[in-house]
């Protein structure tokens, strides 16, 4: 009778203990680097350059009531437009009618390849010049909704199309055997399941739109229509100090970090559901 022996590492530690020790070493190194940087930084000079409380006080509360609020409004309008038009484009791309597919494909490829700044500029100035006398409903807000929403719709269309195609074909076949029409099957069976799948990537689109709202300055906005970036730049020009940019960045983080946490939570919930 032979006995099989298991070779133990020379350190006498198990695999789990070695992994735990490795993580501890990495944490210790990270903490040491942070402490070293905190000690070496000249906080007085850094604060005077980037964190002046007097400038922050002058920015309040308009950085919230004007800059942040307008950023949220522009984002919400562009998202609604992009989602609505993106859904239509996704349906066209999946259509059995050739011209619909060709138009949707050309639109999506074009607007995903052109910078959002160029699209926003062309919408703001190209459409009124092409159609004299035309004005966007809602003025600047309507212009921004279309300008940002046009690009967003191209990305959302591909996201929605992928979500629709991810729904098992058996769902469609079961609905059709029950006598449902194609439109009713799509509205009551396919789209609800598809949107459940694509909620996390659509939330990511909102985060991208929050940052793309910083391009609104190209349409020529008034002081009451400033978004966060334009509001911060205006204060930067007056104070000749980068503190306004730091404040604006913190406001962006106040919007995007909760959205990022929501995306991760939705992804975990969807993974468990699967």
Automatic annotation (TrEMBL):
It is a multi-pass membrane protein. One of its GO terms (biological process) is amino acid transport. The chain crosses the membrane at residues 25-51, 71-90, 102-127, 139-157. It comes from the Bacteria. Gene3D superfamilies: MetI-like. Belongs to the binding-protein-dependent transport system permease family. The lineage of its organism: Bacteria, Bacillati, Actinomycetota, Actinomycetes, Micrococcales. It is found in: Cell membrane. GO terms for cellular component: ATP-binding cassette (ABC) transporter complex. Its main location: membrane. GO terms for molecular function: transmembrane transporter activity. NCBIfam families: HEQRo_perm_3TM. The keyword NAD does not apply. This is ABC transporter permease. It comes from Intrasporangium oryzae NRRL B-24470. Keywords: Amino-acid transport, Cell membrane, Membrane, Transmembrane, Transmembrane helix, Transport. Residues 68-263 form the ABC transmembrane type-1 domain.
């Amino acid at each position: 009778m032979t006995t099989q022996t298991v070779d133990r590492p020379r350190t006498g530690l198990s695999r789990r203990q070695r992994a735990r020790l490795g993580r501890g070493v990495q944490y210790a190194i990270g903490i040491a680097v942070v402490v070293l940087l905190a000690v070496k930084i000249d906080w007085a000079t850094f604060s005077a350059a980037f964190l002046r409380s007097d400038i922050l006080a002058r920015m309040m509360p308009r950085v919230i009531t004007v800059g942040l609020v307008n950023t949220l409004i522009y984002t919400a309008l562009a998202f609604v437009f992009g989602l609505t038009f993106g859904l239509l484009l996704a349906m066209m791309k999946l259509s059995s009618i050739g011209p619909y597919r060709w138009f949707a494909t050309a639109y999506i490829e074009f607007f995903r390849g052109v910078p959002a700044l160029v699209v926003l500029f062309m919408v703001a100035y190209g459409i009124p010049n092409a159609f004299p006398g035309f004005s966007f409903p809602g003025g600047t807000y309507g212009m921004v909704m279309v300008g940002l929403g046009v690009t967003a719709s191209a990305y959302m269309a591909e996201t929605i199309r992928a979500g629709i195609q991810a729904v098992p074909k058996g769902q469609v076949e079961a609905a059709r055997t029950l006598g449902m029409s194609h439109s009713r099957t799509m509205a009551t069976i396919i789209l609800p399941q598809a949107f459940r799948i694509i909620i996390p990537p659509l939330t990511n689109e909102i985060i991208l739109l929050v940052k793309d709202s910083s391009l609104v300055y190209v349409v020529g906005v008034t002081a009451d229509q400033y978004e966060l970036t334009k509001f911060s730049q205006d204060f930067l020009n007056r104070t000749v100090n980068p503190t306004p940019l730091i404040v604006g960045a913190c406001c962006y983080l106040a919007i995007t970090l909760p959205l990022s946490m929501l995306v991760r939570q939705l992804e975990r919930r969807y993974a468990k559901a699967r």
